[in-house]
Amino acid sequence: MRHMPVDAGAQPRDARYTLGVNIGFHDSSAALLRDGALVAMVEQEKVSRRKHALGQAPVAAIQECLALAGVDLDSLAGVAIGWDINLTRMAGRRRFSPVGLRALLFPDAPAGQLPPVTWVRHHLAHAASAYYACGEDNVAIIVIDGAGENQCTSLLHGRDGRIELLREWPIDQSLGFFYASASKWAGLGEWGAGKLMGLAAYGRPSGSLPLRALPDGYALSLDGVDQVGGENGGDLMTLSFPPAYEAAVRSAFACHYPYTERQGEDAMSYTDFAASVQQALEDAVLSLAAEARRRVDAPTLVLAGGVGMNCTMIGRLVDSGLYDRVYVPPVPTDVGVSFGAALVEARDSGVFTPVPMDHAYWSTPFTDVERAISDAGLVCRPLAEAGLARVAARTLADGGVVAWARGRGEVGQRALGTRSLLADPRDRGTWERLNIIKGREMWRPIAPSVLEEHLAEIFPAGVGDPAAFMLAASSVAPSMRRVMPATTHVDGSARPQRVQRATNPAYWQVIEEFRQLTGVPAVANTSFNLAGEPIVYTAADAVSTFVRAKDIDLLVLDRYVVARGYADLPEDPVG
């Protein structure tokens, strides 16, 4: 697959290109910088169509980034990897030698030398992905995930372009692994953290758990195992606690109703358990944030690591008032370490122009659109920008579901208005319909995309910067809960996306047209994919998903409205 280079013809010949990669066992990715500024970022899973890209090197992601910039391997001044292999049990393996890395990352490239490789510590890469993207120079930084080389949580300080480590917690204290273990216990799977968070809203915290907030952070106290100071991790394959710790966590969970691991019964039996785990996590992170505030005299907190995807926790952090500003990048997960590692290498090279990341549209645009539509036997009509927005908004106002796929794709797990399924938030049935289309559990919430100009009307308490990437939950105004029942969760909250005209004018116009028709400045938005699949990447992916999901009424793909037959093909309502 090939793409027109971004900013074709505008690139100086002496530009310095840095490639960042995540080569971990999951969520591999690539990010390309030109003179220290991000040009392209691609997740391997979206190209390969294997969820989380388990066991895959980011070969296709690298190829896509290079193609987008119109450069090749020989153009790279350096390659930065978001792990320091020398600190893991995989140190010295041949696959990480220069010859092995070239074969791993560039298997189809002509023979030649690999550009200089920089190994960047995992949590440093996470921290860089947030600090250098937030647009401020003096910030407190918290990184929380499953595991780095030999740590799971880090407190850091970003100042004068440098990142200083203040404190870290060993892997036996992993909040990420603790939450993942709870997800498995509730029968929601290895990757069920988001599901557990949604389930927690239905329950009430009760019972005791081994995770405790402390005045200077937190502690995870497990009976029957020795605390090993972090020596139990660091092999890139780590997705959970070692067996002894997993057994100890499971023993602690067994003290909580319903006292046994879920074996297929209704998930609602685990709502109080989920609520208890969620509250324990939030209390621990709030204590971490307070400790960071004591150590760093800065009004801004930036947060990265997979736990940063917990929007309920982020919302509580915003509401706490500990900081004037909380910033989370669109890719706080391991996907983001490709970006962070590249930033570290660029900073050390001296060619560094960090640009605030105020949008997530760094992936690829669509190509071969007409061919994909024709090959599927669908019909289409090209429309101007305004016509596409009017057709989509009218379909939504009439109760239809619209697949909206236009422009460069967003990076991260949230669909932010370029690869989205849209519907009417006023109809409670929208919640059920979208979950059926997606093949999701019926109790999982649907989020709203809201015009920036009207966000305070729906979320009077404020959501802060994380709303740009749909990464924080907040309470919906009571008067709006009846207006938008499809996007209001059982606890009265929602996880909004703040839609700015400057960053996504086409999507903003759809919502504005919907507002003019209905009076509601928001639409229901979920990712354009089916269960078990990554978000659509190519035009063929979008068409295939539309064909298989019969309850999607209309596809807007690039400059076309697409339907199953001519009778279903709408015209611009204003001609």
UniProtKB/TrEMBL annotation:
Species in which this protein is naturally found: Luedemannella helvata
Span of domain Carbamoyltransferase C-terminal: 393-563
Domain of life: Bacteria
PANTHER family in the cross-refs: NODULATION PROTEIN U
Family: Belongs to the NodU/CmcH family.
InterPro entries associated with the record: ATPase_NBD, Carbam_trans_C, Carbam_trans_C_sf, Carbtransf_dom, DHBP_synth_RibB-like_a/b_dom, NodU/CmcH_Carbamoyltrnsfr
Name assigned to this protein: Carbamoyltransferase
Residue intervals of the Carbamoyltransferase domain: 19-76, 113-343
